Amino acid sequence: MNAAVNNPETTIYVGNIDPRVTKSQIYELFVQVSPISEIRYPKDKVLQMHQGYAFVECCTPEDAQYVIKLMNNTVSLYDRVLKVRRANAQSTNISNPGDISMWPLAKVFVKNLDDTVDPMQLSNLFSKLGPLARQPEIFYLSHNELRCAYIYFKDYAHADTAIATLNNQLVVNKRINLDYAFKENSQTNAKYGSEVDRLLNKEARNRNLL
């Protein structure tokens, strides 16, 4: 059992928390919908920065379930939508990633892919520049006319190299464009790659979470 989880039936994992959010703000937010017995909000001992997640302990399993139903993907703090779920022993291990947006990965946006390119080809191409955290995702924009992809690097140094190396290069007869992806549910069109993103990514790698 994870030491941060006293009782998995009453403890909630809250992820995707902006480092500027304080423990008091988390308490004030959650106590509005349920009695709270304890909050654990880990902070890095060296950087003295919060690590992007917290454990909120409710009084009963019913309270915990109510909070999850009410607050998961519905509440934003500093333009980050909180991810709220039941805590368990895998809550701080990316081997059971759940929502990938909860992890401090380097997410790269690739535009203008040829129709013949598949995820395996993308994985082979980008993994030559650095380790990937998961298989690339291919999707369409502009009424299914523009083929794009998301590439998830484990660290920003390799993502930076990929953008510098492959942006505006020909891949299967099409010139692709690379940039950092926009963050999920951001109200300010913020992209991955900020100084805070890079610090959180570095700490996660130092702790072997990625």
Written description of the protein model:
This is BN860_13652g1_1. Keywords: Nucleus, Repeat, RNA-binding. Residues 10-89, 106-183 form the RRM domain. Its main location: nucleus. 30% of the residues are buried. A hairpin with a 4-residue loop joins strand 8 and strand 9. The protein has 210 residues and is of the alpha+beta class. The protein is elongated and about 60 Å long. It has helices spanning 23-30, 61-71, 119-127, 156-166, 195-206; strands at residues 11-15, 36-40, 53-58, 76-77, 80-81, 83-86, 106-111, 137-141, 146-153, 170-171, 174-175, 177-180. The chain is 24% helix and 24% strand. It is built from five helices and twelve strands. It starts with 10 loop residues before the first strand and ends with a helix. The strands form four sheets. It has a four-stranded antiparallel β-sheet with strand order 2-3-1-6, covered by helices on one side. It has two domains: 11-92, Alpha-Beta Plaits (2-Layer Sandwich), CATH 3.30.70; 102-206, RRM (RNA recognition motif) domain (Alpha-Beta Plaits).
Q: What features would you highlight for this structure?
A:
alpha+beta, elongated, Alpha-Beta Plaits
Brief summary of the model shown:
The chain is an alpha+beta fold. It folds into two domains: 11-92, Alpha-Beta Plaits (2-Layer Sandwich); 102-206, 2-Layer Sandwich (Alpha-Beta Plaits).
Q: Quick one: CATH superfamily of the largest domain?
A: RRM (RNA recognition motif) domain
Straight-line distance between termini: 20 Å
Strand content: 15-25%
Please give the share of residues in helix.
Answer: 10-25%
Q: Might you state the CATH topology name of the largest domain?
A: Alpha-Beta Plaits
Stretches with pLDDT under 50, minimum 5 residues: 89-98
* Quantity of strands, as a count: 12
Query: What would CATH call the class of the largest domain?
Result: Alpha Beta
